[in-house]
Design brief:
Layout (H helix, E strand, L loop, with lengths): L2 H17 L5 H21 L4 H42 L1 H24 L3 H6 L1 H12 L12 H21 L6 H23 L3 H34 L6 H33 L7 H21 L12
Helix pairs in contact: 2-3, 3-10, 4-8, 4-9, 7-8, 7-9, 7-10, 8-9, 9-10, 9-11
Length: 316
């Protein structure tokens, strides 16, 4: 193809790439591919032509745009964990605290009920689970339930289940926060009944050292998900000076940010439950170290660290 025909055939496309640069990463990558093809053809047949220099410069500009966009995406991820999520947590410390109070109250009430009614724990946890646990205690392995599956299968199932539970706690906030309270009630009662049962069997300290290896992150995350549910419900109940729909969008956006922040925590909790909790005879110092590290992270990242950020009123 003659150089003039090659230029005439492609000049409109090149001008579009030059003067109307794409903002979408996929579209930008497509333009870069096109230019590389054109540049390769030009270098082959017109190696010393000005059009080759022009295409080389244009392709370089788009490549730098792609690289800059990729760099900004990485920076965006880092800023989410370093600044954006802690700022949201700081803004809604009160809702998370309310979730903690509600959950703890229901857990204490469940333990109190279990202490005064022998059938309460079985009614909450179910006959199948209770029969299996009593059988494990009789065999001298009270926490054998954490060993009945292979590690990978257990990790996968627990991770999916934990994320599902937290999602239900969150989206139930659409029912004017009442749904979230109900979900916190269910989970709090199960925890209270479960924990009381082991204390009643003389296994309280041992249950803390074993179960709370993963339970520290898991329960903390459910409580924080409850806070996200309250954010959602309160955005409907108390829109303030905003229109109710606008307030709901704002609350949903902030709640989703909290839930995104919980996903890796649930995955770590599932890993601990699937791969570590099964070693119920591990040294006490190791159990305490894992518990302290988990609790320390939750307290630092969700209580202490966010306090350095002002909780500004969001604008959307």
């Amino acid at each position: 193809m003659r150089e003039g025909l090659f230029i005439k055939k492609n000049i409109d496309k090149w001008k579009q790439y030059q003067y109307e640069p794409a903002t979408d990463p996929d579209e930008m990558a497509g333009q870069f591919t096109e230019l590389v093809n054109d540049l390769g053809y030009s270098k082959t047949f017109y190696p010393h032509s000005k059009v080759t220099l022009y295409l080389n410069g244009l392709a370089s500009r788009i490549y730098l745009g792609i690289y800059r966009n990729k760099k900004e995406q990485v920076s965006r991820i880092l800023s989410f964990w370093k600044t954006e999520l802690p700022t949201v947590v700081r803004r809604y410390h009160r809702e998370i605290f309310y979730s903690f109070l509600v959950f703890t109250l229901f857990a204490i009430l469940a333990a109190f009920s279990a202490a005064h009614d022998e059938t309460f724990v079985r009614g909450v946890l179910g006959d199948r689970y209770m029969d299996m646990t009593e059988e494990n205690i009789a065999k001298g392995d009270p926490f054998g339930v954490y060993k009945h599956q292979d590690q990978l299968s257990m990790f996968t199932w627990i991770a999916v289940n934990n994320i599902k539970v937290s999602f239900m706690v969150f989206v139930s906030g659409f029912i004017l926060s009442i749904g979230t309270i109900w979900q916190l009630f269910n989970n709090g009662v199960m925890l209270g009944a479960f924990q009381y049962y082991f204390f009643a069997k003389g296994l309280g300290w041992q249950s803390i050292l074993v179960i709370w290896i993963h339970g520290t992150l898991e329960i903390s995350s459910i409580i924080i998900a409850g806070g996200a549910g309250f954010i959602l419900g309160n955005s409907i109940l108390f829109p303030g000076t905003h229109r109710r729909l606008h307030s709901l969008k704002r609350g949903a956006k902030d709640g989703v940010k909290l839930m995104i922040g919980l996903v890796p925590i649930f995955i770590v909790a599932a890993f601990l439950e699937g791969f570590v909790t099964r070693y119920s005879t591990m040294p006490v110092w190791l159990s305490i170290m894992i518990l302290a590290a988990s609790l320390g992270f939750i307290v630092w990242y969700f209580i202490i660290y966010p306090r350095r950020f002002e909780p500004p009123t969001p604008t959307y």
